[in-house]
């Protein structure tokens, strides 16, 4: 392996580790106000493997390629769905309580109970309904029976939806999509 390839590989690995550290929890038991992701979350990074007809190595990446996620994190995208699901196959509907807190204004913009049929899924809220001003954070809390899950998402291009699912074993899981 030549020196340039080794240096490029090491730099890429270090950048991946640094990026992953920014997108996940240090500890699963961290308070929800300090958490940026849940333990079940997976962060995906851009690999730069678009089909070009030639081999792409880390040394071939440009500054534009390495900053795409930073640009996405600062680009507003107000519409983020909050999805509720029930993976139960026993025919039993479940009721969950959902609260969406808009951090920029310190207000609860959604506080409602939702019934989800067995095997069903609903879009319970869209952050665009709060008319966010640019990139804003929303703390979303879902409660099922004695279980509570909280995630925080932002209205940027980097974030996708938030999802809370009651499993077939009646366990509540909260996740969200992030670049």
Automatic annotation (TrEMBL):
Which regions are flagged for Low complexity bias?
A: 42-60
Segments carrying the region annotation (Disordered) are: 24-85
Query: What protein am I looking at?
Result: Uncharacterized protein
Species for this entry: Halorubellus litoreus
